[in-house]
Amino acid sequence: MNPVTAPWIRTRLRAAPGAAVALAVLVALTACLAAAFPRALDRYTDAGLRRAVERAPADVTGVLLSAAPDPGVNEATLEESLRPRRLTDAYRSVLGLVEHPLAADEEQSSYGVRTTESLPSPEQWLPRPDGLPAEMVLVAPQGLDGHARLRSGRLPKVTGGQADASTTEVEAAVTEETARTLRMKVGSVVHVPGRRELTVRVTGVVTPERPDGAYWSVDPVLRTPSLRRVPAPAGAPSPTYWVGGLLLAPEAGPALLGAAPVVRYWNLAPDPDTLHARDLDGLASAVASLESGPALQQLRSKVSPLTDATTGLDDVFTTYGRLRDDIGPLIAVAASGAGTVAAVVLLMTGGLAAGRRRSELALLRARGASVRGLAGRLLAETAVVAVPAGALGLGAALAALPGARLLPAVGAALAVTAVACLALPLRAVAAHHAVRIHEGRRDATTPRASRRRVVAELTVVVLALGAVEILRRRGATDGAGDLVAMAPVLVGVIAALVLVRLYPLPLRGLARPARRLRGAVGPLALARAGRSSASTVLPLLALLTAFTVAAFGGSVLSGVADARDRAAVLAVGADARVEATGALPSSLSDRVGQVSGVREVTEAGVDWLARTPDGRQSVPLAAVDPAGYSALAARTDLGAFPAGRLTRPDGAGGGSEDAVLPALASPAVAERLGDDAFPLRLADGTFATLRIVLVRERTPAVYGDEFLVVDRAGLPAGSAPPNVLLLTGDHLDAGALHRAADDAGSVRLRSEARDRYVDSPLQSGAERVYTAAVAAGAGYAVLALLLSLASAAPERAALLARLRTMGLTRAQGRRLLVLESLPQALLAALGGILTGWAAVRLLSPGIDLTTVAMATTTSPVGRAELRADPWSLAVPAAAVLVLAVGVAALQAWWSGRRKAVTELRAGDAR
Length: 910
Fold this sequence. Notes:
Elements: H1 8-15, H2 17-55, H3 58-61, E1 63-67, H4 75-81, H5 84-96, E2 110-115, E3 119-120, E4 135-141, E5 148-153, E6 169-175, H6 176-182, E7 189-192, E8 198-208, H7 214-217, E9 226-229, E10 240-248, E11 262-268, H8 280-292, H9 294-302, E12 308-310, H10 313-356, H11 358-366, H12 371-400, H13 407-431, H14 451-474, H15 482-485, H16 487-502, H17 504-514, H18 521-530, H19 537-572, E13 576-579, H20 588-593, E14 598-607, E15 621-624, H21 626-636, H22 643-646, E16 661-665, H23 667-673, E17 678-681, E18 687-695, E19 708-711, E20 724-729, H24 734-741, E21 746-749, H25 750-756, H26 761-805, H27 810-843, H28 850-854, H29 870-897, H30 900-903
Parallel strand pairs: 4-10, 6-8, 15-19, 16-18
Antiparallel strand pairs: 1-11, 1-12, 2-4, 2-11, 3-4, 5-8, 6-10, 7-8, 9-10, 13-20, 13-21, 14-15, 14-20, 16-19, 17-18
Helix pairs in contact: 1-12, 2-10, 2-12, 2-13, 2-26, 8-9, 8-10, 10-13, 10-19, 10-26, 12-13, 14-16, 16-19, 16-27, 17-18, 18-27, 19-25, 19-26, 19-27, 19-29, 26-29, 27-29
């Protein structure tokens, strides 16, 4: 008979199908998360750039090209240059010079002929608010029929042949808003005097298809008339006049030559769908080329030497780039931390498999298997499971997050798959490089560290210290490099290496006095914990790294939330604010107090026109009830003060002229007015005498850095009536408050003010990525703990079986496993709290959360600093303790249900 050799891979997969499935699930999940990260990053950075462009005014984001008539040419040539065919040819030339990656939105781009200034019309029927004639901007746009719907009449056209400079009568259309505001209708005639009077007959009224689009918004006066003021010196009257737009036929451009100076224009609107944050440098270069570079020079040679370009798109790109650069390093910190923990878990998976198969691999080496052949078989065995799983995870990420780059996601998934494939072969090669018949003791307390390990640990220490020092000196957003992103991870690595070296020492010290205790459970648990395997390094590294990243990420999220909450409270003064320019109705306080969620209503009368007697200095004055206002200031932490210090003195009621009212002032006002009593003239002409007795930087009723607060009962009767209501409560209903206010005043909620600080998808995306990174790191840390416990499970089960044959009860077995697992769990918990707190304290001077919190580099509450969040430190520590104790107790319970014979079979590898 010929011997039949069973295929290695099929045999191994059939022998351990559960392990293969678990590895596939782990690789698929990790590959999916790794591939999803760069795609999520692309999506929210692209969305942030598009939002920045879309929210900016169209005349800022558009590239506005214009060309005056060429000098020194005859009238016929000028007229020809203003006709639609030549304008369209020039427009195509402009589009052809837009460099990649910038792309123009041809649907919203516009071109045509227009007058350079508005022209006054003598028509008396046009509205004249201050007696000045209305002025008209004459435009002959191309493509009007594709961007407007005809409401009445017909679109303008040129009658009687071609229009030229001698044409004196043209037709025009106006928008609905222009017709309504300027009292125009079909058939209206507008005379526009100029170098030659031009008669414009309105033939149609149109409605813009997309009034907020760039076609109508680059020059909004074409869509909506503008009420403008005549410039005047300060204090002098400034009369107003209307400016409207008349939309001529596309062929009527040459007729404008006889009325006023004209220009040809080409307004290019950027296409938001083609904007990508990764192309920001190329976009800025393309804009610069059109604005003052090679593209503009080519336009001047092709179209006109007088072609000029203006745009604010480069400023939009610069502002967005600054925001992205500020947020990017923080995201890199979260990603590096979660990636490190995931890599540790994958390495632990390979280590666990190598440890379970130690005897098998040693036997193969003893029977002549080469290191290369053994590694190749293990690699093939792992790749059969990991490669399809990695491809599945990649496919899931691509399907879940479309519309982003493919290569970064593929690279991330390949890296995960490679680590998963190589973990087992490399671990096996390291353990079985030399052929061994008997293995020595594998305790963590006995072997001395090799020189290579010492050098590696010192290298990590030096790198971590260098990263922290760079971050402290230069900040996270000042080009500190990739080393800074790894700083929290390296801090966790240092702590793991140090704790692994040190933790056996106190355990050995406790084991000696524990021998004098009654019973064998305590001494045995301490002895086993002190002689645990050296494989403890990787689980502890994963736990401490996850702790550090969770503390750092949780502190970032907490700092961002605190900064927004503080800024919102400062902007509103309470949970909600009802404010009016005049006195509020007396019954309004009771009405809003009955709204669901409102607990307290504090009235304040703010006199914004209070002045010193000489009239040179104005100071906002808030008249309040000291008791209620003091409680509000304490709740909001906006300048808390003792109510008794502000209460009017006896005999000062009703605004007694001889009484001096105590006042609370801002530092600026206190410095300017001093400590002496001073008179203050109120808006109604009455006077009050005040003396500053308290100084606070903020107060709920008044915005800004200048204010005075006094007892309302001490002011003259009727002075500073309540015009502000400050509401305190939970889950306030904005609609109910608006209905209760009944247009008596404006309503502002703290929650709405807080939401406005999330101004860009870049901010919200960064927060979501941070939350996902912290959650993923925590999940992988839990998995690392479970893998660590699983690696020791067979040996622990065998130990319990042996001890049960010696009389150990099930309760004692549970206590033994729990006590054995507690030292490492406590080590991870306390070490994680310490390293997390230390990482935040060390790195906080270089981290500024202002941009993430407020979308600007400045904040009304100052610099948003990074502070350690107690919950981010305490919750993971408690979870580790509960999980370790629970798994140990579950393992003891399960082992107690199995027969001892099963665990004590001779020859089983445990």
